[in-house]
Amino acid sequence: MRLQGMILALSLLAGAAVAAPGQDTGGAPELCEDPELEGPVRCVPVTFDTFDIPFAELPGGRLDASGNLDPTSSPEDAHAGAFVAAERLGLFANFEWLHWLPTAPSELDPETGEWSGGDLDGFPTGWGSTGLGIAGQCLYWGRSNSTNTTGPGVTRDVRIFRIQDDPENEPPVEVGTMPQLMTVTRDTAVRDRELRPYGYTTTGGDERMLMVRSAATGTGGDVIVYTLDPETCLPVDEGATAAGVLAHEFYLWHDPDNPNRFVVISQTYGSQEEDLVFTAVTDESTGAVLEEPLLLASFTLEEVGGPVRDEAPDATGLFSDGRFPDYSHLTDQWGRPGASQPSQGNDLHSGAMSDDGERFYAAGGTAGMYILNTAFVANNTNADLAGGGVCNTHSTNVWVDGEVGGVVDVARLPEAANDCVHPVLNSDPGLLAMLASDMSDVRKLVRYTRLEERSRFDFAPPFVASVSVHSAVPVPNRPSLSGANADGRPAYVVITEEWPFGPCPERSLRIINVESEIAPMMIGAHAMSDSMVENCLAQPVPPGAAIRPMMHAHNPTVLENLVFVNWLGQGVRAIDISNPFNPREVGHARPVPWGDVMSYPDLHNGLIYVGDNHTGLHVLRYTGPRADELLGDGIHSSNRTSPH
Questions:
Q1: pLDDT tens per residue across span 140-191
Q2: In whole angstroms, what is the distance from residue 352 CA to residue 49 CA?
Q3: Of 413, 436, 437, 439, which is closest to residue 426 (Cα–Cα)?
Q4: Where are the domains of the chain?
Q5: Is the N or the C terminus of the chain less surrounded, counting Cβ atoms within 10 Å?
Q6: pTM (predicted TM-score)
């Protein structure tokens, strides 16, 4: 595949911009890959081929000013050389790389003159997600932290930046830090998985800013809410911790009918018994951050007859919903075995709340993608919900004698519709009418079981993926036209899928039609070539690379016709979903050294801010088709109510 040349402009203070020739900010390159196509994706790159150059030449370490590997190069040369290498290798198409802000320093070995251990070296400063969030002009960046068995390891404080008035030419400026949190024994630093700042105006006219932080050493961590000073960007208190709540990821919902009201929806991913926990974090009368966040409701899928957690296969490898392929006998170029599926966790991993708060789109891991009815939470006050008189605070156990995984008691099923949070199926009028009919209990059970399984889009099996559905984000401004969907809820949901730590094959992005909310159906998909196991196994080892990053689709920020997805080792990919049956890549941005782009992209006043757990912060400008969809004024991210 022919990759187009780039124009390079270097500036250490302002970063550097890499742009395709012959294009304006909203157009497409002059050269076309598929000239026979019509429409806005005519002259854009096709899916990036990871086997063509530059994959085998991706630099995996510190560079000199000419873009060649050199562990002894100065910080200035290492920074400049990355932009040279990106231009030479064609790593940016329909994106401009405006700024690179390394935030983890390298260490110099005085004996060898070599640098190591920092962002300029492409060094992984820990494992797992990295927190990135923007509110107002304030940007917060929290790193993963590495640990070892003999000492505290490497800790990284949360870095606080202010976005400048001319963000294209001036990089964000660091204005402070938030101290890294430690475990009780102070021998391990937590990792700042999630940071969600948000600026708002209360009903009393007060301009406020808060930030929700999830800090963890494992799959789930404390949910802590800080009050921030919007002028300085700095916290003004020590934060309020939600007692008894652990979040793997979470969504921050701002009530459209009450500007004072914020609710955190914590997805626990197996770190506690509940799958989801809904917590009020502000006073709904004043908008001030609560000193003690208030539990509103919770949800657990297996309680309402869904798949049980941590299901192991039988002796033949068969699970209750099928058999997975097994690639463990194959070996990639790094010497690692291919993927296999030892269990199905069926844990809720991530998700997104509708703007009106009446739906939650759940990324349920190996249980699939499904939709929850959260209208009770949206349409009642915190006080009424916490009082317990509005709805069932916790999920109804619908199993005979309460034995999860046994037999569903159909007589208990109608009560699930009164749960504060429940699958849309459980309050579907047809289901409730069927349960109230004179049909036999056996027929009711068979029909409910079929409907329950159909109400979750579950691709695992046949696709091996340890986490499976990682993220689920509805497509905004594209409502269903179905007459059975009178509320005009979203027609489509974008989901990504995860296999952590990178065994082959890698996983992809899918488009789900949810016009029938109780019967989601896949209509489109987009993948890199390493989603095919034979391609993944044959991937060469880039020079200087000490570790192969994960390379699956991870966190997407979704607009009406565009998705910007942080695809880990594949960088940032721009996907045109104007035709959801045929998603098409319309741009890619792959910073060097080779990294791990993980956090949700934050869109701020038309620019894209992304975090890389190997190389730090990056500021991008998308210039491809439909670039006018990026907000010229405002903030958009798919992990909190947006735009804001």
A1: 998 866 544 334 456 788 999 999 999 999 999 999 999 888 765 555 667 7
A2: 31
A3: 413
A4: 7-399+453-636
A5: N
A6: 0.92
The mean pLDDT value for 377-406 works out to 96
Q: Nearest 5 degrees, angle CA 591-CA 47-CA 63?
A: 20
Residue 438 contacts by C-beta under 8 Å, 6 or more apart in sequence? none
Q: Starting from the edge strand earliest in sequence, which strands make up the sheet with 584-589, in order?
A: 92-93, 584-589, 572-576, 562-566, 555-558
CA distances 310 to 157, 276, 466, Å, are 34, 17, 11
Measured CA to CA, the distance from residue 238 to residue 178 in angstroms comes to: 10
Distance CA 600, CA 57 (A): 27
Question: CA geometry: angle at 351 spanning 346 and 354, to 5°?
Answer: 140
Q: Kindly write down the DSSP assignment for every residue of 156-199, as one continuous string.
A: -PEEEEE--SSTTTS--EEEEEEPPPB-TTSSSB-EEEEEEEEE
Helix (H, G, I), strand (E, B) or coil at 145: coil
Compute the mean pLDDT over every residue in the chain, rounded to the nearest whole number. Answer: 88
| Least confident window among 13-27, 172-186, 470-484, 542-556 | 13-27
Q: In whole angstroms, how large is the CA radius of gyration of the chain?
A: 24
Residue 335 neighbours by CB distance under 10 Å: 7
DSSP lists the bridge partners of residue 609 as 602, 619
What distance in Å separates the CA atoms of residue 32 and residue 50, rounded to the nearest whole number? 19
Helices (H), 243-348: none
Q: CA end-to-end span of the chain, whole Å?
A: 40
Could you read off the pLDDT of 126-145 as tens digits, one per residue? Answer: 655 678 999 999 999 988 66
Cα torsion 380, 386, 387, 388: sign: positive
What CATH topology corresponds to 7-399+453-636?
Methylamine Dehydrogenase; Chain H (2.130.10)
User: Has residue 93 got a pLDDT over 60?
Assistant: yes
Q: Are 223 and 241 in contact (CB under 8 A)?
A: yes
- pLDDT of 420 over the 50 cut: yes
Phi and psi for 146 in degrees, rounded to 5? -90, 145
Residue among 630, 635, 644 at smallest CA distance from 95: 630
- Candidates 267, 305, 246; CA nearest to 470 is 267
pLDDT the model gives residue 49: 53
CA 123 – CA 115 distance, rounded (Å)? 11
Distance CA 71, CA 523 (A): 47
DSSP 157: P
Tokens of 197: 């700042």
pLDDT tens digits for range 291-335: 999 999 999 999 999 999 999 999 999 999 899 999 999 999 999
- Check if the beta carbon of residue 383 is closer than 8 Å to that of residue 377: no
